[in-house]
Amino acid sequence: DVKTDLNLLLECLKYQMDCPVSQKEALITIYSICQQNSEASEYFREIGGLMFINDLAKSSVHCIVKEAALFTLGIIIESNVYCQQTLCTSALFEDLILFLTNEDSGVNLKRMSVYVILVLVSNNSNGQAYVRDTGCIGLLLRLFRTTLSTSDMNLSDENTDQCYQLWSSVCSTLCACVNNPQNEDNQNICSSVFPYAKEWLENCTEPEIVRPICAFVGLTVANNPYVQKYFVSVGGLDTLANVLIKLMHDSSMSHSSTKLAVVVTKTLDACIANDSTMGVVLAKYHTVSELLKLLSNDTLDIGEKMSIILTIGHCTEVCEENQCELLQNNGLPLMIQVLTESQDEELNKAATFVLQNCKQMTEKLSLNINDNSLNKNDAEEMDVPVRKRSLQDYWKKAKEILHRINLIEKEHNEEEVQGRVFVDRFSEADIEASKYHEMNPADPKTYRERIHKIVHCPQLTSKLDDQVLAQSVHSPPLKNKIVSTMDPVNASARQNYRSNIPCSVNKTQASSVHQSQSIKEKNACLKTQSSLQVVFSEVFFFFLSNLDQRSLYSERAKKEKSTLTTSASAKVADLRCFGCTAGGLSFNSITFTKMLQSCPHQCEHHKVILEAEERYKKELRKWTVCN
C-alpha cells in the first residue's frame, strides 16, 4: 500500500538523522513513489512529509542529503499543484539563493536548487513574482553569463559537462520565468543577457548550446515589441540569420542539423512576429530562400513545416525584398503544393497567409512597374482611370445598341406576321367575293351583304387600322373617319361599289398575292408587303373620296332591290335594264354605273357604256400597279 510505504519512509527519515546514506535512500524511494503521482504527493503533504523534507534540506550538514532532499521536493512540487502552492514562498526562494551563492555548494547542489526554482515558477505567476522580488532571477542571469566559458567548450570533459548541465538548467528556469504565463517584467529583465546569448551563437553552433539559447531568446522576445527591438538592436537577428545559413550550408545536412535549423527558424519568427518591418534585416541574408530550401526537406513533420511557413509569412508581410525573393525561388508553387497536399487546417492557414502576401506583393510589383514607366509615360499612366471609364461607357453604349437591334428585329417580325395575315385575308376576301358573284349574280342584296361581311371582318379592320393606315397613310384622323362612317347603309353602298369597280383589280391583287408569297419564300417579303400596303391604301382613298356620293345612292338601291324582288317573271319578260327604267331619278356617273352593274339584264346601249368604262378603269389600274 502506497500510503503505508510513505508513512514508513517518513519515519525512517526522522529516525535516521545520523545516517545520511539511509536518509538519501529513503528520499530516493519517496520521490520514486511520488513521481507523476499526484495523489501520493498530496497524501505525503497531508502527513507532513513535504515540510519535513524542506526543513531537512536546510538543516542537514551532509551535501548528499541536501541534494536528495531538494530533488525530492522538486519531484513532489512538479507532481501536485497544491504542493507547489504550499512551498511557493519568499522564504524558500531566499533559502535557494543561499544554496546558489554559497561557495561551498557544489555544482550538483546548485543544479538541484535551480531545479526547485524551475518547478516553483512553472505555470505559476506567483512563483514568477517571487523569483523577481527576491532577486533570484538576477542570480540566475549571472549563472547564465558565468557558468560556461565561450573559449573552452569541451563537453567531453567531466567538469565541463557538470557546468553545462547547470547552465542548461538555468536556461530552462529563465524560460519558465518569462513564459506561461507571459511575464513582461521578467522578459525585460532577462533581455539584459542578449549580448551574451549573441556571443554564444556566434562562437558555437553545437546543438547543446544553440537549442537552450534559442529557447530562451524565443520565449523572452515573444509578444514583447520592446524586447524584440532590443534584440535586433544588439545584432541578435543578424546572428540568428548567420546561424541558419551555417546550418543550411552544412555539406552533409544531417538530420540533427535540419532539426536545429527548425529551432533557429522558430526563434527568428518570434523576433519579428509582432513587428514585420524588422524582417528587412533578414533580406540581406536571403533568409527566405534558405527557409524555402528547409521547407522542401522531406523529414519535417507538420508542426515544423507550419513554423517555417509562418516565418516566411512574417518575413514577406511588408518587406518587398523578401517578397521578390519568395517569387524568384518558386515560393508560390511551393505554397500551393502545401495547400493541395496537406489536410491539416492550421498548416493550410499558414500557407494561405503566405499566399495573401504574394497577392499583395504582385500588386505592389505591378504598381512599381507602372511607377517606373510613369517616368516615361506620365500622361498615359494618368489616363488609366479615364480609359477605364471610357471602356465602361463603351460597354454601356454597346448594350444599348444591342437592345435597339433586338427591338427592331422584334418589330420586324411582328410586321411580317401582320402583313402576312393581311395579305392572306385580303386575297381570301377577294376570291370568295368573286366566286359568290359568279354563282349568284342575280341576288344583289345577298351579294352586298356578303361583301360587307368579308371586307369589314373585325380582325382585318383591326389590322388595317393599326398597321396599314398608320404606316402607309400616316393619318390617324383618317383612320378614325373610316371607323366612324361604317354604318349599315353606307357599308352596303361601299360594298356595292366595290363589287363593280375592283373586279379586275381583285384578280390583279390575287395574282400579286401569289407573287408576294413566292417572293417571301425567297426572303423578300418586306418589299411585297410595302407594295400591297400602298395599293390597299389607294383603294381606301378611293372609297373615302366617294363616300358621300355612295351614301346618296344607298336609299335608291334599297328601293330598287324591293322592285327587283317583286316578280322575277316580269323582269324576264320586260328585258329592260335599270338604266332604262330609272326615269327622272338623280344620278351621277359613279352611282349610275353602280346601278347598271347590279342589273341582271342590260340593254345593248348601257352595255356598251359599261364596257368603255371598264377599259378606262383597266388602264387606270395598270398605271396604279406600275407605280
From TrEMBL:
Q: Name one GO biological process term.
A: homologous chromosome pairing at meiosis
SUPFAM superfamilies noted in UniProt: ARM repeat
Superkingdom of source: Eukaryota
Q: Which residues form a coiled coil?
A: none
> Which Gene3D superfamilies does its entry note?
Leucine-rich Repeat Variant
Q: InterPro entries from the entry?
A: ARM-like, ARM-type_fold, TERB1
Protein name (database record): TERB1 protein
Which source organism?
Atlantisia rogersi
Gene that this polypeptide is encoded by? Terb1
